[in-house]
Amino acid sequence: MMLRSLSVFPRLHPPFNPTRTFSTFRIQSMLTSELSDVEVSSLRANKERLAKDLHHSCQWGYGIRWGDNPTDTGMQRLALSEEDKSVRDWFIQTTKELKCNVTVDQMGNIFAVRPGRRADVPATFIGSHLDTQPTGGRYDGILGVLAGIEVLKTMNDMGLETKGGVGVVNWTNEEGARFPVSMISSGVWAECISLEHAHGLKEVPTVASLPTAASAPETMKSALQKINYLGETPCSYKSSPMAAHFELHIEQGPHLVSAGQRIGVVTAVQAYRWFRLNIIGRDTHTGTTAFEHRADALYAFARMMVRAREVAASKGCLASVGIVEAKPGSVNTVPGLVSFSLDIRGPETELVAKVEEELRADFDAIAAAEGAGIGKPCRVEWTLDFDSPAVIFHQDCIDCVQESADAVVSDAPVADTKSLVRPIMSGAGHDSVFTSKRVPTSMIFIPCKDGLSHHPEEFSTADDCATGVSVILQAVVRYDRKRFA
Amino acid sequence: MMLRSLSVFPRLHPPFNPTRTFSTFRIQSMLTSELSDVEVSSLRANKERLAKDLHHSCQWGYGIRWGDNPTDTGMQRLALSEEDKSVRDWFIQTTKELKCNVTVDQMGNIFAVRPGRRADVPATFIGSHLDTQPTGGRYDGILGVLAGIEVLKTMNDMGLETKGGVGVVNWTNEEGARFPVSMISSGVWAECISLEHAHGLKEVPTVASLPTAASAPETMKSALQKINYLGETPCSYKSSPMAAHFELHIEQGPHLVSAGQRIGVVTAVQAYRWFRLNIIGRDTHTGTTAFEHRADALYAFARMMVRAREVAASKGCLASVGIVEAKPGSVNTVPGLVSFSLDIRGPETELVAKVEEELRADFDAIAAAEGAGIGKPCRVEWTLDFDSPAVIFHQDCIDCVQESADAVVSDAPVADTKSLVRPIMSGAGHDSVFTSKRVPTSMIFIPCKDGLSHHPEEFSTADDCATGVSVILQAVVRYDRKRFA
């Protein structure tokens, strides 16, 4: 009996015949609650279709080439760029074809909902982002959105219905690369960031690929208007409610790939704080000004950056500088002004605070030493741009992911398949950080080559991608079953 | 008799009556060789007129305000900008009104020559530059050109004729701030730099005030054409010959002002080398990449800059970074590429070479350490942009300046007026470095406040400026007398 049911739910591995599966369910459409546990565990995504769709979507904004295959390029699809508009248009067209209702909110977040049996409850969402870093890859964020599309396609093919709807959301400017606050649009949705602040945010001038950035920087609002993605729906969890939010992502770190593991069940996200700092010194001539007569803001910066790594490492944290600008920017003038970003991360909110506290004292001391000889020492100013305390994900979601992961890897050719799944903490922030503040949330990680991310050569195999999508497919089904049990 | 002659050569201190002096000489025009030594020593510039002309010329491209007086601003007059065009037009109009023949060469260098008695010999030149740093002041370069104008005005007022002509030259892009090779146009004139290389040089993108710089950088040639200063005269000491080149400049260092001295007789210019360096690491995610998994090009840069100061200081040299760019320039991406400028200077050519040699080894070691953990260490590339060996100026010119300086300060209210004059070495490069390779050359320094330069608050008193111009006036007269003695 059970074996017969399984023939109705073929493992959707290649060779996959969608017509047959589809027609099976056209005859006998089925609700998630009507599936047996074994049937749920046998659900799989279509690896080839997923890979095809993912790389198809990467035609808009493909970046630096690093290999010979057509898909061996990075991505450069900055939020709200022309390339981003193109992939958004494709996303809407595709989800509409999958019978979704699509809405766009005031931050350009796109919500595509495949209706469930009950119209009076919010959908369970799969979400991530389609924007990338300036030298990003094809998986960070993109896989998470494409996972949602593949889940919808699989469900449609099978005629599988859910009690609550299933949604896919594309969050705007998750990377914070063009507009320098990451996850800003899920932050507005969660009502943790004000719409006014977000709309007024200016693009970073160092993103050189955008010709406007240096001369007449766009705001988020003007950029949204320019590509016609300033929606009318208020950006809020109240206007676009969710039952839960699941996100599939590459690990962006080396743990899974080093250990040969297949799935990370993400239980938490480390804390982090982003700062902008200014060091104010004094412009002087490089050829005529002795070291003791200088207030060299760039030299002070160099000492600070070296110190930041020492302090962070001593506390098991990370400290990184991604952006630096020195002014006036002339070979023979000692820079009198340096601006830079500082990104401090750690497993606990308190540890990040301790690193910050120590660095504030150390940076003051470094600044005071530079220029002391002329009685005009450098000084340093800190601005907190972003504060993301450590996050613990929702146990119901974690459980759904854990069960699904164990099920999906169960046919792997190893003795202890459960060893292929591990609980993991996210080092990076994700939109799930903000959704977790309003709705049950958790994430799924898959391995990526060398743990590399934010780099054109960022890579995950088609197998690993499909494994991740199979897990999120089952997790959404399990969650739908649980919430109406 | 001598006293009567002196009444013919009134010390041109305020109150100065140009009409009377002028009319005196209209009756009895006089050649430099006909002056007595005491008469030469009594020659003075007009302090008020000099100050008025200098600040008048600073209306084009005035920069950051730092005080309440109308002239309390810095300068931002980048080479071949619209502001530079305006002051060039003024320079040509002014020198033509002073009866000069004006030519413009292929680098936009402007030569204004007041003819002497003999048309068959080259003129003795006074020269410097009208361009400034992006956050420069009102004296660096500008004083040197205005000194030439004031010398011509004084000579015209007095009806003083020279045997060889007297010229004033404005050299293009001395600062190297917009087009990143300093003294490039005197370098082409001296045939030490090729015209093709100079014409092809692109503007620095970090000079943010120029909107073209980031998107479509001008070359020197296109910039010359744009403001109509691409002259037809070949840029060469053969086509625009000089008998000698004298340059008046602020010290840009603290020695004169600290010692209360009035004039520096510049005997030499320290050696320097300018490099562009690239550090190639690997872009990765700041939140998920442990320090030992990074090849952080910016962290390597920070260590290199700290090391550069240590090594330079140990050898009595200077090492400075004025420009730094980190790519891709995103808060949460570890920069995989950093480019920066390195300016090494020292009193001897060999010392600069030793600093370079040591830094090449140290930088390689720093790069090798960063990323070693992943087997993909950073690497560093050096490009030499500019090499200026130490220069010794011409003894004839130095002698003229020394005698003139001693004469000009002789009426100061101190016991030992000669103590107000000192021999000095230039820390900065100047166009005189290149002219010295082809014709007898030397320089004159005056004190500047706090030794500060390449800064909006760069300042010299009107008295000190006039003292300097009086010295260069006498030096040109003495040189004219010597060469035809």
TrEMBL record, chains A, B:
Keywords: Hydrolase. InterPro entries: Amidase_Cbmase (IPR010158), Bact_exopeptidase_dim_dom (IPR036264), Peptidase_M20 (IPR002933), Peptidase_M20_dimer (IPR011650). It holds the Pfam family Peptidase_M20. GO terms for molecular function: hydrolase activity, acting on carbon-nitrogen (but not peptide) bonds, in linear amidines. Residues 272-367 form the Peptidase M20 dimerisation domain. The keyword Hydrolase applies. It comes from the Eukaryota. The keyword Hydrolase applies. Belongs to the peptidase M20A family. This is Peptidase M20 dimerisation domain-containing protein.
